[in-house]
Amino acid sequence: MQIKFCGASRFVTGSCHLITLDNGYTILLDCGLYQGNDKAMHNFNRQWYFDPKSIDCVVLSHAHIDHAGRLPRLVKDGFQGEIYSTHATRSLCSIMLLDSARIQERDAEYRNKKAKKKNKKKLVKPLYRSKHVAETMQRFCAMPYDHWFRIHPDVEIQYRDAGHILGSASVTLKIREKGKELLFGFTADIGRPDRPILRDPQQMPEVDFLICESTYGNRDHESKAEETDRFLDLIRHTCLEKKGKLIIPAFSVGRTQEIVYMLDQMENQKVLPRIPVYVDSPLAVNATQIFGAHPECYDNELNEYMLVDENPFGFNNLLYVRDVEVSKSLNYSNEPCIIISSSGMMNAGRVRHHLYNNIDNPKNTFLIVGYCSPDTPGGMLLNGIKDIKLFGEKKPVRAQVERIESFSAHGDRYEMIEFVKNQKKLRKMFLVHGEYETQVAFRDLLQKYITKKVEIPSLGQEFRLNL
């Protein structure tokens, strides 16, 4: 069999890996969208390192757009197989892929309107449209955790809870060829232990070959207690002392619900200041409803909390914003408040308008709570940029920029080591989903604790795996 790395190779987004068995059966692990502005990746989302028509099935780890966001494009370009996922992942994909399509349709319309004013003949086409999402959802086949399912006479699949976002899973493939059997593993995104809402990540079975993520392979996260105290300090400093806005760019799925749950706990403990809290993201509103429909993914802490508070995602002074006019009004309001808005890297969504209208005010604070690619607005702010170009205008960065990495849904280096420490028979490990310098540091750590046989594949690189 062969493995070809078709995305998230020496960078973080665009997860996509192709397994081809000797009998010709093809399995695509994830089909993610590249999210960033690197010029070298300009055409990545419209190109393939394989023929979409030749893919027999997709095995999807979770619903984040950098893992699932190109599925409608795959279908549009001729894919006719099944898409395997967990039940919660299918539910989330139904709203996230539609949101992605609508954003692309609106962006194409906006850019084409500008092009026509300049008499440019070449028009932009969206990567896919809403109709392609409908066709894609018909191909989903959902599975529960912890059961083996046969997807081909020679291939079985098992999902285990990865603790990353609702429905996220590691993937183990049991593959038989030429009378022999091997186990192939894909960690996908490894979650964090002892986090709110979701169960802790469950270790995978021992496998022969493993694709492993490496996002935070050179860093450690703060503890839960330090994170909560610092978050509350930032709320008080920004909203009470400076009388400003605390703006939190957050992914609509996972991060937003975790932050709301923490604020709900603060409210019940009577330590949250009496200030308005806005979740300004229609996708986050829909995603929060899906969270309520999948209690099979909750940890014991949340189940016990719900005996006291039946709605962990709602409290006094919290408003979920769908209407665009209400969203716009927040930009003109001077009231101290908390605004949680997507996207987490600030490269799309309503948060870009909050960035544009608030970045030049020193009263405000932007709190970044997850990974940001260096070439996105979030990454630029973290790197200390003094001015930022938004909607064709250069804005001075006067607002306070803070970061709490422990909110991340990705495990840090030692949490990932803990996740894979049971892998005693590895013949080879491949690192993906990380910046190259981070991967080199994580490889050194893995070679010390887990295995010497670690590869960092480049984009398009292929490996022959012998049974």
Query: Averaged pLDDT, please?
Result: 93
Please give the radius of gyration in angstroms. Answer: 22 Å
Largest sheet: 7 strands, mixed
Number of strands: 22
Structural class: alpha/beta
CATH architecture of the largest domain: 4-Layer Sandwich
Helix content: 25-40%
CATH topology of the largest domain: Metallo-beta-lactamase, Chain A
Low-confidence stretches: none
Structure description:
It is a single chain. The chain has 467 residues and is of the alpha/beta class. It has 2 domains: 2-219 and 409-464, Metallo-beta-lactamase, Chain A (4-Layer Sandwich); 224-407, Rossmann fold, CATH 3.40.50. The protein is built from 13 helices and 22 strands. The strands form 4 sheets. The protein has a 7-stranded mixed β-sheet. The protein has a 7-stranded mixed β-sheet with strand order 7-8-9-10-11-20-21, covered by helices on one side. Strands 14-13-15-12-16-19 form a 6-stranded parallel β-sheet, with helices on both faces. α13 (436-449) links the parallel β20 and β21. α3 (87-117) runs antiparallel to α4 (130-137), α3 runs antiparallel to α7 (282-292) and α9 (324-332) runs parallel beside α10. The longest helix has 31 residues, at 87-117. The chain is globular and about 70 Å long. It starts with a strand and ends with a strand. The model has no long low-confidence stretch (mean pLDDT 93).
